[in-house]
Specification:
mainly alpha, globular
Amino acid sequence: MAPLDWAALGGYFLVMLLIGLWSHRRVGNVSDYFTGGGRMPWWLSGISHHMSGYSAAVFVAYAAIAYSYGITVYVWAFLPLALGTAVGAWLFAPRWQRLRQRYAVASPLEYLAKRYNVPTQQALAWSGALLKVFDVAAKWASVAVLLNVFTGMSMTVGILITGIVTLLYCTVGGLWADALTDFGQFVIQGVAALAMVWVVLDRLGDGAAGLGTIWNRLPDGHGQPLVGPYTATFLGAYVVVKLFEYNGGMWNLAQRYMATESPKAARRSAGLSALLYVVWPAVLLFPPVAAAVLLPGIADPEKVYALMAESYLPAGLVGLTLAGMFSHTMAMASSDANAVSAVVTRDIIPAVVRCARDLSPATALLVARVCTVVFITISMIVAIEADHFGGVLGIIVGLVAAVMGPISIPMLLGLLPAFRKFGPRAALSSWALGLLGYVLVKFVLESTDQTLVIVTPLVTSLVVYVAVGLISPEPDDTADAIVAALSPASDGDGDGEAVTATAAQPAAASGAID
């Protein structure tokens, strides 16, 4: 890269660190650190939700699919995000906000100890934290691939640099730092991505008209919505997985809704994020789709976006584009670190160490920051060994998408009135048998069918949860009160502030584990 590119990249990292330092002043306790104190504007929450939902894997693994198969990656990988988030705007987002507002929780899993029981909470907490280590590791590995192409830097050094910078700002500033850096990253990524689209259109030779004429020049099948291994069954499974994952199964995204000021703000936040998932991935993925015409025969498709940037963009914009690629990884990784730290601090440690249940505010905040450091450090170590886990896409699709169902189904369905009598037996059975289904398909049968690997644990968990809950219901006054407190009021205001708040108090699940 040219000196101007290095300056752009260095300036990006400096801005992220300055935002972290500024955010430090807004963090006075654990609530501020994990949920922004419930003061986050809906538009900032929505942009942060969107930016935290995908990473530099877009420019590596997904760009490779766009180059090799065409537009199918937009259809199966990103339209499900838009659909799932839009459904969640109505069904889940306001409930997450009420959960924080009425029970003063700082972790998405805190309510599970009262809604089900402590063993259920711990099972989901431990397995979800382990899953997140691999999820974030895949993101570090993705951005290291890009650094390697642009600079020749080794994968290990690239992972360490990205992880350490992220560690500094998210540990200092908490969720406020995450959200504000997400916004700054969104702006930077916007400039870089639009510049790349402009250059690609110019290379195609038709200017803006190239958006309409390129389809006749693409290889066979690249204009089809579903091709190769990406079948209708795969799409259907992915839609259901993302419905759960992006509405709270991915804990960091639930935090964005918890951080808003009201149920209405949470709903608007989800709506904005859903709209961005329709528009923005199409902008990001157009260049690698067009690369099948402009740069045929690339040996390693995962490097296509980086190679296009190096070949087509002038000095300065290359560094800005690389910064834009960094932005998605750092947004997701920092928010995941904050969410996992919340779960470890609020759910796991108090269950294991009794004296940790009565920490002073200052000590609790220190523990939260230490947990963030530990999580990011472990995820970087796993990233350095990413090839041993099936590579970047192997981790994202093969592990994360498959295991997400068993972890998220009891947590999310437990918020809804239709499942209020579904108790610990349904939750733990769903979690255990769903994970067992994944192990059997992936490691016993050694299936290479991505659709089967994703569908089996998801369907198993969903069917078991519903079946056990219907056959063996466990009515509980505390669970009823929690579900009622999270539901809209019957007086037509859509938010339910006055009607259910009083009833909720006896069941308060503010993190205490008896």
